[in-house]
């Protein structure tokens, strides 16, 4: 069982930066690949970024590539999402998720492959 709690969301002007954190409970955090997803009103949940168990592999949606960076600290049971050059279209509720399925350098972009989800944190980017 993994309990995930996001933090770091807020209101920021376009071009600004935010750093989201996702703290995980339990002692098996390093057994899970992690992902960030987002959802805005009237839209489907969208994959943002993923990272492998050890952090050696990452993957990004085209819409955030070059602006967002996912990282993790297994000693702190935390995964991060550094968001730079934010745009109004980045406005959404951002959720982290944990997937047990993928070992080694694997990760998933598919929400149905994730086992545990946080409650989300709101990110609002004003123009």
Written description of the protein model:
This protein is mostly beta strands and 127 residues long. The chain is built from no helices and eleven strands. The strands form two sheets. Strands 2, 4, 5, 6, 9, 10 and 11 form a seven-stranded mixed β-sheet that branches. A four-stranded antiparallel β-sheet has the order 1-3-8-7, with no helix packed on it. Strand 7 (68-73) and strand 8 (78-83) form a beta hairpin. The radius of gyration is 13 Å and the shape is globular.
Concise summary:
The protein is mostly beta strands and 127 residues long.
Secondary-structure blueprint:
Elements: E1 4-7, E2 10-13, E3 18-24, E4 33-39, E5 46-51, E6 58-60, E7 68-73, E8 78-83, E9 92-99, E10 116-117, E11 121-126
Parallel strand pairs: 2-11
Antiparallel strand pairs: 1-3, 3-8, 4-5, 4-9, 5-6, 7-8, 9-10, 9-11
